[in-house]
Design a protein that fits this description.
elongated, 88% helix, 9 helices
């Protein structure tokens, strides 16, 4: 391959990536501007909230219980070296509400509900249902894309709150009921050390951003999937990978802004 052909190949790749990124940003802007779907398509949004919430509920609860138990166990052994084992409840709560609950919920949501959104939209595209909607004068953005996008942003903070609550009780079961940490110290230190505005609300704000990001990737990958079984399968894989990477990147940015 000559130098000219090599440079042309690189330029074509950069141009294609830039065009894809621009199209994604424009699609995201349209979805964000289409907030009126809550009023015009209320039934569809509620259906998606119910679907996505139930689809992710079991894995969230089970994961939260085990993660909280592990935090309680590891926190007890780490803090007991410094004579601060009674503060294990505070450590479990802060770890969950600030970081673990929003991040883990978003990644699990991408793997469980996000892939379902991508597969559903991808199959609709493969079956030419989206094209049929456009021919009948129905905008797929209002009928298919926006309800799933906003429902994901609404469901994730609810799942995050539930995740943190179950995780705290998982840590309680291990540290108090098993390892013998004082019951009153577990709850009192947690109550005095966790701030509603700087800890809980900022954690929920993270979960909203993560939920909208994961929902957008799931919807966009489904809409852009090749209308073949292999194309839909590849789109679902891309949803999980891109969502996990984006959530971790956004977590760093939001943490740096919120707790700077």
């Amino acid at each position: 391959m000559s130098v000219v052909n090599f440079l042309a190949h690189i330029g074509a790749g950069v141009r294609e990536r830039t065009a894809s990124f621009g199209h994604a940003i424009r699609t995201l802007a349209v979805m964000l501007a289409n907030v009126s779907v809550w009023a015009t398509r209320t039934r569809l949004v509620v259906q998606q909230i119910h679907f996505l919430g139930n689809y992710s509920l079991v894995i969230m609860v089970v994961s939260a219980a085990f993660i909280g138990a592990v935090l309680g166990l590891q926190g007890y052994y780490a803090l007991s070296r410094f004579g601060a084992a009674q503060a294990v409840g505070l450590m479990v709560a802060l770890s969950l509400v600030r970081e673990l609950a929003p991040v883990v919920v978003a990644i699990l949501f991408a793997g469980r509900a996000g892939t379902a959104i991508t597969a559903e939209i991808g199959l609709m595209k493969a079956g030419e249902q989206l094209a049929a909607m456009e021919m009948m004068g129905v905008d797929p953005m209002n009928r298919v894309f926006a309800p799933r996008f906003w429902a994901g942003g609404f469901v994730t903070p609810l799942l995050t709150a539930l995740f943190a609550l179950v995780g705290v009780y998982g840590g309680y079961a291990v540290s108090v009921l098993w390892l013998g940490v004082d019951d009153a110290a577990y709850w009192s230190l947690m109550n005095s050390g966790v701030d509603v505005s700087s800890d809980i609300m900022q954690g929920l704000l993270k979960s909203v951003v993560f939920g909208l990001a994961v929902s957008f990737i799931a919807v966009y990958e489904g809409a852009m999937a090749h209308p073949t079984p292999e194309g839909v399968a590849q789109a679902t894989t891309r949803t999980v990978v891109k969502s996990a990477l984006l959530v971790l990147a956004l977590d760093f940015v939001l943490t740096a802004v919120m707790f700077s």
